[in-house]
Structure formats: structure tokens, C-alpha cells
Amino acid sequence: MAAREGGEGGIAGGLPFSKARCIALVVTVTGAAFLNTLGVQSSVIILPTIGRALDIPDSRQQWIVSAYNLTFGCFLLLWGRLADVYGKRLIFIWGSVWVTLTSIIVPFVPNEIGFDVLRGLQGLGAAAMVPTAIGILGVTFSPGKAKNYAFSSYAAGAPLGAIIGNIFGGLLGEYLSWKWVFWIFGILAAACTVAGYYVIPRPALPPPGAIETSAKKTVDWIGGTIITLGLVILLFALSEGNVVGWRTPWVPSLIAVSLLLILAFGLWQHHLETRTARAPLMKMSIFKNVQFSAANVIMMLFFSSFNNYLIYATYWFQDYQGLSVIQTTIRFIPTGVTGVMVAAVTSQLLSRIRGDFILTFGTVMIALASLLFALPIPTSTSYWAYAFPAMILAVCGADTLFPTLTLFVAKSLPYEDQALGGALINAVGQIGRAIGLAIATAVQTAIMARKKGVGVDEIGGEGVEIQPWDDALKEGIRGTAWLDFALGAVATGVVLVFFRGAGKVGGKH
């Protein structure tokens, strides 16, 4: 009966159940963030190996990663609402079961299309786990120290998954087989499933005589379809734009269609909320809270910058400096170590320091990290003089900003919308990553084309050969770093304007 007595919501002012079980719960749901970034990063490292094994050309290998990211980003909102309606525990467990099965099956698929489809199905399962995990933490722990620890630990899961994913994919791909990357990933997801079954509390029974309104138990399938289609089209167009060229007629056409669908979704949600008794997928009235809207803008800007920073730092080490996968992986180790340490410190700061101070610190850190790669520092400069501090600064920003924003969202939304809030903040971050990468790639390509004296369409083609220590490549990567610096600076500006004087996010209500 312990699980049911704890229920969703916990005990005000204390732990919802035993300390050991609370720790096990936090570790289990943190597994969602950890597995998500592990699945992406470990695949990035072995892309060339998979390409050779399945005879996938270089130009299409990016879909091994993009297929996963596409379904993950597009189904977050729908899964978040389903979790709030049918139970967060149920959706989390079945999502992890789905990830387990698809991960085990993926290496057995012998062709490119089937492989990409299975990768997309993997992302579908992850999209069920991530917002549900945030929702579980939001409703299980009462505001206070325990909740701060929980959200800070969850925030550490993503950078830890990224760094372990690099090492994990590199070592297994080099010394065993690329297939084991997916099989071990499936084993970890299975462990998450079993742990979730035992430690995630069942929903508390409603009090005797309580009547749940039918509106709260409905899912807006029309809205879910519209927004999912809109996001699929948008992220697909952004992913393919840099591959086929932005002047390709169907790319801007698809972006226009996606924006119209997203607008239609907003109008439909407003209609349901104001003109009917049916529950919308997302209450548009929540955006009347200016700080809530600003929080989503900050999330988008920050993760546009942070994601670009990680990707182009990888290009700097591998493509420009000509380092091996293992050598590059070693240079990213500070991000994982720093992530764990900063998460522990942040859990203590959330109830002691004002939210605007923490958010300002986070956005300034990613701006400074990008600046260290943007400045014309001599290429002979030691890694320890610029890249090492940049790695630390970037993760200091991510692991202070993310728990602060997720806690703010948890406090801003009612009990029944906690998983949807987690879905929204992650979806915004995912869209920011896609838009930021599309702009960064266009910036890099334009700078390299100017330096080479060729057309933009020729960069990356057979006629333009790019070798390590190429000046055009150096300037192109530094150009993207200036973009990332600007994104971080704008995010800082949004914090200073809309969060000025904000209280302690981690305090009790």
C-alpha cells in the first residue's frame, strides 16, 4: 500500500515516502533524460560505421539521428497530455517498454529505410518518457528541498547521457560492434522499465464522493493531430533545408505550411478553452503569464546556442584539428564531470538565490563558452587555455538554467497539467535546437563559400575539398560561435527584462 498511499502529490513539507524509495524514484525518472541524450550521442559517434554496414551514403546518414529527433520533438505534446489523462506512471512504463523493444530490433534491420523507421519509433518511445518523468517529479514532491534535489538530479541526466554516449558509442563501435550500442541501450531501457514498475507511485485514489469532470479525462485528438503534423513538417523541412538547399522550392513551402498548422492549432485550442466545455490539448491562457511565455523563449534561445556549441565544438576537434573520435571524446569529458557537480550545487541554490540571478548566470555562461570559440585565438593555443574552460562554462549554464526553468513551469501549471508542462518545455527546446542548427549551418556554409570564392551550393560537394586546418573551415566554425554568442546574449536580455526581481524558484509556495 506504500505506493498508493504516497500517490501523486506527496506529503506537504516532507518526503512522500521513504528516503531510499525517493532516491530510487529520482534515479529512475532521470533515466529518461539520460537515455534520450545517450541514444542520440552514441549514434552520432558511430554514424560512419553504420553507413558502411548498411551502404548509406554520407548525405543521408544524418537521418539516423534526425529520424529519432523528429519523432521525439513532434510527439512530446501529445504524449504529455495522454500522461496527464491516463496516468504518468502508465505512459512512462509503456514508453520505456517501447524503447526497449525498438532498440533491440534496430540492429537486425538490414536496409536504410527500415533502419531509419525503427530509429523514428525509438524517438516515439522517448517522447513518452521525458515529459512524463518531469510530470512525475512535479506531482510527487512538494515544493522544498526534496523537489529541488529531484529536479537538479533530473537536469544532470542529459549532459551525463551525452558524455557517456560519446564514450559508450566510441568504445563499442571501435572494439566490439556498432550493434551492441543499441542492444546495451535496450538493456538499460529495460532496467528503467522494471525500476519504474516498482518505484513510481500509482495515482492516488480520489477521495470518497469526489467526481472527476469528463473534460479533464478527454484528449483533444484533433489538436494533437494538427500540432504533431505541424511540428513534423517544420522539423523535417529544417533538417532537409541544409541538405538539399534552402532555395529548393518545397523547403520554404513546407515551412509555410507548418507555420499555418501551428497557427491553426493555437486558434483551435483557444476555441476549445473559451467556447466549449471540452478540455484543450494546451490551455492557451497559460501564455497570458508573461514570465511563463518568457521562460519558453529563454529555453528555445538557450538550447539553440547550447546544442550548436556542442556540435561545432565536435567539428572543431574532428574536422578542423583532425582528431580521432576517441581523442574528441576525451575533450568532452569535462562536460559530464561538471554536469554532475553543478547539478548537486544547483539543488542547494534554488531555494537560496533568486530565480533571475540563476537564469542570468546560465545564459551568460553559454554566451562566454561560445565566445571562447568565436574569438580569433591562435590555433596553436592549448586546449586547456580556451576549450577546457568553455566546456565547463557551457555545462554550468545548462545545469543551472534547465532545473530552474522546469521548476518554474511546475510551479506555474496546475496539478493536472504537469506532464504537459514538461512536454512543452522540452518541445520548445527541441524546436530551438532544430532552428538554431539550421541557421548555424547556413552561416557556416555562407562564410566558407565566401572564403573559398565559390557558390554556397558548391560547399560540401565533390569539387570543394575540405581538409584539416583549412582556414575557410576555421572561419566558418567561428562564425557559428558568434551566432551562439548572440543567442546567449539575447536570452540574457529576455531574463533581465521579464524575470527582473523574480523570487526563489525552489522555495515553498
From TrEMBL:
Localisation per UniProt entry: Membrane
Protein name: Major facilitator superfamily MFS-1
Native species: Lentithecium fluviatile CBS 122367
Keyword Heme listed: no
Record-annotated Major facilitator superfamily (MFS) profile domain positions: 25-504
UniProt entry keywords in alphabetical sequence: Membrane, Transmembrane, Transmembrane helix, Transport
GO molecular function, one term: transmembrane transporter activity
Gene Ontology cellular component annotations, sorted alphabetically: membrane
Main location: membrane
Pfam families cross-referenced by the UniProt entry: MFS_1
Transmembrane segments: 23-50, 62-79, 91-109, 121-142, 149-168, 180-200, 221-238, 250-268, 289-312, 332-350, 357-377, 383-410, 481-499
The keyword DNA-binding belongs to this UniProt entry's keyword annotation: no
Membrane topology: Multi-pass membrane protein
